[in-house]
Automatic annotation (TrEMBL):
<dbReference type="GO" id="GO:0003906">
    <property type="term" value="F:DNA-(apurinic or apyrimidinic site) endonuclease activity"/>
</dbReference>
<dbReference type="GO" id="GO:0008081">
    <property type="term" value="F:phosphoric diester hydrolase activity"/>
</dbReference>
<dbReference type="GO" id="GO:0046872">
    <property type="term" value="F:metal ion binding"/>
</dbReference>
<feature type="compositionally biased region" description="Polar residues">
    <location>
        <begin position="20"/>
        <end position="33"/>
    </location>
</feature>
<feature type="binding site">
    <location>
        <position position="49"/>
    </location>
    <ligand>
        <name>Mg(2+)</name>
    </ligand>
</feature>
<dbReference type="GO" id="GO:0008311">
    <property type="term" value="F:double-stranded DNA 3'-5' DNA exonuclease activity"/>
</dbReference>
<dbReference type="GO" id="GO:0005634">
    <property type="term" value="C:nucleus"/>
</dbReference>
<feature type="site" description="Transition state stabilizer">
    <location>
        <position position="269"/>
    </location>
</feature>
<keyword id="KW-0464">Manganese</keyword>
<feature type="site" description="Interaction with DNA substrate">
    <location>
        <position position="373"/>
    </location>
</feature>
<feature type="site" description="Important for catalytic activity">
    <location>
        <position position="342"/>
    </location>
</feature>
<dbReference type="InterPro" id="IPR036691">
    <property type="entry name" value="Endo/exonu/phosph_ase_sf"/>
</dbReference>
<comment type="similarity">
    <text>Belongs to the DNA repair enzymes AP/ExoA family.</text>
</comment>
<dbReference type="GO" id="GO:0006284">
    <property type="term" value="P:base-excision repair"/>
</dbReference>
<feature type="active site" description="Proton donor/acceptor">
    <location>
        <position position="267"/>
    </location>
</feature>
<feature type="binding site">
    <location>
        <position position="373"/>
    </location>
    <ligand>
        <name>Mg(2+)</name>
    </ligand>
</feature>
<dbReference type="Pfam" id="PF03372">
    <property type="entry name" value="Exo_endo_phos"/>
</dbReference>
Length: 383
């Protein structure tokens, strides 16, 4: 995001000690955030654009929370967690899946990848009896479009973190897609319970197949985009954003044809409607309007057209016109510029089957941490 954009209320709602997500004594913060998540079969999915993994690789935690000023226009202090993946998972009661975007790890940087695995599973004290996780990376291998600082490819990248117990409970496959060379899409395919193989599940029990697409969508700009194989200039990042939409829609429709229910979650780099931007929705240059219209047609509004995804914006499905935002740029007063660009979309059939349970946007400076985005979460059933 590169301009001023949507605010939360200046005064945040105060939560009780048992529901406040910043409380170090809170063992189940999400149970209060979701009004109807008392479903033992629900899977809790978090998504967060962390804007670089490095600050999150602390493994030694002597104190989960430190004090700091909330914002330049506030004289109050709040408890702020250290930038630790393990502490984040613990604070949010061990979600089943954590989708991270913009991890900024080079595909050849095995050392940092190993450090992430250690950080996710590092015990934070004698009382840490929490979950263990498997970690999967989708990192850029495009030497023309994802060079990063120093040409080492330390840019973009997504990471899918899945709780080890559901890896055992379900048949789960995590894969990339051939049309993405920038490390932007990771697909978690869940094939029902572990008493069937993926091939059996695809034919005998298609209703319990779920695909979670962890997405860091292209940000449309006038910067050049080159053919990833030849390096030939083929357009701008705006052009690539539109082709990314087309590829993502085709991938989703293909998965649907195989019997999967679809969850698209992550930083989609689109604020879908006027209500999702403050102080205004980005409309200049005009290409941003074209990009938004293309996204809406392919994923939200294309009900009357063939070969469209026909998706549901989970936040709007549950919360109607409630305004919360996910992108809060640093260097400006909290809430003066923000957008809802981190989204969760599901196919309409999944909603009609009762697959959706609840959702939340964790919009606070504390939850933003060292990033410029806040996390979102959704509870779903494998139905």
């Amino acid at each position: 995001m590169d301009r001023n954009i949507s605010p939360p209320p200046p005064k945040r709602r105060k939560l009780s000690p048992t529901t406040d997500p910043i409380s170090p004594h809170n063992s189940t913060p999400l149970d209060a955030a979701f009004s109807n998540t008392q479903d033992k079969d629900a899977i809790r999915i978090f998504s967060w654009n962390i804007n670089g993994i490095t600050p999150f690789l602390q493994t030694r935690l002597t104190n989960y929370f430190t004090k700091r000023k909330r914002s330049p226009n506030s004289d109050a202090e709040e408890n702020t967690p250290q930038a630790s993946l393990r502490a984040f998972l613990r604070r949010h009661n061990w979600p089943h899946v954590l989708c991270l975007q913009e991890v900024k790890i080079s595909a050849t940087d095995v050392k940092t990848q190993s450090a992430v695995r250690r950080a996710v599973n590092a015990k934070t004290g004698n009382d840490d009896n929490g979950a263990e996780y498997d970690v999967f990376f989708t990192l850029p291998n495009d030497k023309f479009n994802a060079r990063g600082l120093g040409g080492k490819g330390k840019v973009y990248g997504v990471c899918s973190i899945v709780r080890s117990d559901i890896m055992k409970q379900y048949n789960i496959k995590v894969r990339d897609v051939p049309w993405d060379t920038e490390g932007r899409v990771s697909i978690i395919e869940i094939y029902g319970h572990h008493d069937t193989t993926p091939s059996q599940s695809s034919t005998t029990n298609p209703q319990d197949k779920l695909a979670i697409l962890n997405i860091y969508a292209v940000n449309g700009t006038t910067n050049p985009y080159c053919d990833p194989k030849t390096g030939t200039l083929v357009g701008t990042r705006h052009n690539r954003k539109l082709s990314f939409h087309a590829h993502l829609m085709s991938e989703s429709l293909h998965l649907q044809s195989l019997g999967f229910s679809i969850i698209l979650i992550g930083d989609l780099n689109i604020a879908p409607a006027r209500i999702d931007g403050h102080p205004n929705l980005r409309t200049f240059p005009e290409q941003h309007v074209i990009n938004r219209a293309d996204f809406r047609r392919r994923f939200l509004d294309g009900k009357g057209e063939d070969r469209m995804f026909h998706g549901v914006d989970v936040w709007r499905e549950f919360r109607g016109v409630e305004r919360k935002f996910t992108y809060f740029p640093r260097g400006v007063t909290w809430g003066s510029s923000c957008d809802r660009v981190d989204l969760c979309l599901v196919d309409r059939a999944f909603v009609e089957k009762g697959g959706l349970v609840g959702c939340e946007i964790w919009d606070s400076e504390m939850e933003r941490g060292p990033s410029d985005h806040v996390p979102i979460s959704v509870d779903v059933r494998v139905v």
